[in-house]
Specification:
globular, binds 1-O-alpha-D-glucopyranosyl-D-fructose, 8-stranded parallel β-sheet, alpha/beta, 585 residues
Length: 585
């Protein structure tokens, strides 16, 4: 977070004109840099090939050394791992493979002792089918927990089609013979949707959230939270209506439930408003025009929000994470990130990420992971993430430039999403080979490979058999080899973190894109008071010229991912993937 003393100051470089003394509506979760840890792949200490909480405890000083303010931890609750923890069987117990509640308490204390906040994952659109609630609900139509989930009695005929994202038939209703009824699952068959229309469900969830806040956690990232409200008149949605009203996207329909904002406001009033915590919504299915409905402070719902518009750039409309053969265009990228910055310019607050556990590695997807450009483009993307407006979420491993796994064989894939798509394609009589070619770049496994600590066996991640293949490049891409190299991606990340933490302009400053039509350079200014910063990012492998907008800026950059910066007059000659930030005079 920004030390108060520096609010009056300005940047790490030569101080420029003063920023306004008072910045309104300051919040820790606006100023924090958040580091996302996928615990399954972070560090294994008991040799089962799966990361665990004691591994995180062992690495607390490494996390501290990054300079980040908070950690977002993917689910660590009891789970049969049908979807790697996004199928929770007990919201208040720790997954056996990850450790115990005592380990959790020690980890939480370890974070707090180092001034790092802990944001947990809240997965309450659905539970695991092994949760006690579902076991009860499934057992009898008269069970008190029956209406904790959505059931369709078979005698009423087939239920109206709903898409099941991780279902091998692509369907979201599954017949269960125990009570001759279908239950709803937007995701996997082992992930039945909770019935938020039932006030008893909501109260159980609010009580659970409260108990976690009382334990001292600092927030929740709320998994597919826009999906929680269902239209229980169960209308038939025709393909035409889906196309016309929801752009053919079931996620958009799922995010349009009738009581969604009633429930989010209720959650805010009953729980979130009682604590100084982060309430981050994962905005699956939410379009730009709906964004402020979630995070406009006056609505008293959530605080900030992940959008998906950036992640879908360059994908084919067919879905299955197929790539558009035309590739992606920087002009589209710039439009999306500008729109999602501008929508929160005056109200609400945004977030920014390029990688996470559902996405490919950012340097492979948006940079260039060839040996020639891997380091420069990693640093350029880091500069983008830490200089844009909105809370930055930085994915573990991106600070050392980890790259895509590029799995060649279906037997190496582990993820329910990839595996269900493979089944769906076979069921449709489609040849999966071309899809698998794309999945080497786009599948979720790419971002889930174990952290590469050093060049020893299994990259120092485990002494056992890793749960997912470790990238063969761990011999030369690992934290240990970068630790003492001042030019490394790791130390560039640390430097950029410090620049953001000492530059209120990069947190609160207005954002304005410059030269929007430049197809290789993404440049923008950040303004706070009468001070400015200019960020210039070459997203291409070419050397390109960039005309500095005016002589407002000091030509000696605040940060630069190359050793030198090359000007002819006010023309900047940017090397491949060069990134630089300039402060105003
Ligand atoms: O992801 C929600 C979600 O929409 C993703 O599945 C997304 O649609 C897909 O990966 C393409 O980007 C959340 C979690 O982040 C994900 O890991 C879970 O699998 C999913 O919800 C179900 O809980």
């Amino acid at each position: 977070m920004l030390p108060i003393s520096l609010l009056a100051g300005f940047t790490a470089c030569k101080p420029s004109k003063k920023a306004p003394e008072e910045i309104p509506n300051r919040k820790w979760w606006k100023e924090a840099i958040v580091y996302q840890i996928y615990p399954r792949s972070f560090k294994d200490t008991d040799g089962d090939g799966i990361g665990d909480l004691r591994g995180i405890i062992e690495k607390l000083d490494y996390i501290k050394s990054l300079g980040v303010d908070a950690v977002w931890l993917n689910p660590i609750y009891a789970s049969p791992n049908a979807d790697n923890g996004y199928d929770i069987s007990d919201y208040e117990n720790i997954m056996e493979e990850f450790g115990t509640m005592d380990d959790f308490d020690e980890m939480l204390q370890g974070f707090h002792d180092r001034g790092i906040k802990l944001v947990m994952d809240l997965v309450v659109n659905h539970s695991s089918d092994e949760h006690e609630w579902f076991k009860q609900s499934r057992s009898s139509r008269k069970n008190p927990y029956r209406h904790f989930y959505h059931w369709w009695p078979a005698e009423d005929g087939p239920p109206p089609f709903r898409a099941g994202f991780f279902d091998p038939n692509g369907e979201a209703w599954l017949y269960d013979s125990t009570t001759q009824a279908y239950y709803l699952h937007y995701f996997g068959r082992k992930q039945p949707d909770l019935n938020w229309e039932n006030p008893l469900v909501r109260q159980e969830i609010y009580d659970m959230m409260t108990r976690w806040f009382e334990k001292g956690i600092d927030g929740f990232r709320m998994d597919v939270i826009p999906f929680i409200s269902k239209d229980t008149t169960w209308p038939m949605i025709t393909a035409k209506e889906l196309e016309e009203k929801h752009n053919g996207d079931w996620a958009r329909y799922y995010a349009s439930g009738p009581n969604l904002h009633t429930y989010l406001h209720e959650m805010n009033q009953k729980v979130l408003s009682q604590y100084d915590v982060m309430a981050l919504g994962e905005g699956a299915g939410v379009t730009l025009d709906k964004a402020l409905d979630f995070v406009d402070e006056e609505r008293e719902e959530l605080h900030l929000f992940f959008h998906f518009d950036g992640q879908s750039i360059g994908y084919s409309p067919e879905g299955y994470r197929r790539l558009d053969p035309q590739g992606w265009k920087l002009s589209d990228f710039k439009k999306v990130y500008t729109r999602w910055s501008d929508v929160f310019a005056d109200k609400g607050w945004g977030s920014i990420y390029l990688g996470n556990h559902d996405q490919p590695r950012m340097v492979s997807r948006w940079g260039n992971d060839s040996p020639e450009f891997w380091a420069a483009s990693s640093k350029m993307l880091t500069t983008f993430l830490l200089s844009m407006r909105g809370t930055p979420f930085f994915y573990f491993g991106d600070e050392i430039g980890m790259t895509n796994l590029r799995l060649d064989h279906m037997k190496d894939y582990k993820d329910i999403e990839t595996l269900s798509w493979y089944e769906q394609l076979l069921a449709k009589g489609k040849d999966p080979a071309p899809y698998m070619e794309d999945w080497k770049i786009t599948a979720r496994e790419n971002g889930r490979s174990p952290f590469q600590w050093n060049s020893s066996q299994n990259a120092g991640f485990t002494r056992g058999v890793p749960w997912l293949k470790i990238n063969d490049n761990y011999k030369y891409i690992n934290a240990e080899s970068q630790e003492d190299d001042p030019q490394s991606i790791l130390n560039y990340f640390r430097k950029m973190v410090q620049i953001r933490k000492t530059s209120p302009i990069l947190v609160y400053g207005n954002y304005q894109m410059v030269q929007p039509d430049h197809e290789q350079v993404y440049a923008y200014t950040r303004k706070l008071g009468d001070a400015q910063m200019l960020v210039v990012l070459n997203f291409s492998k070419d050397t390109v010229n960039f005309n500095m907008p005016t002589n407002t800026f000091q030509l000696n950059p605040v940060i630069n991912n190359y050793k030198k910066i090359n000007f002819t007059g006010s023309t900047l000659h940017l090397k491949p993937y060069q990134a630089a930030i300039f402060a105003s005079n």
